[in-house]
Amino acid sequence: MHFRAGGHDHNETDCRALLDFADWHLFGKEPEGEFNNPPFPE
Length: 42
Prior knowledge:
mainly alpha
């Protein structure tokens, strides 16, 4: 999952995260960010 600060809108950051995730799973490209950061760390 990808979490970012801000409201419930879809912006360029969200689109980049989605494309990064797709590239990672479909083409094996290493993502620029991480997708396992919990929104509320313990």
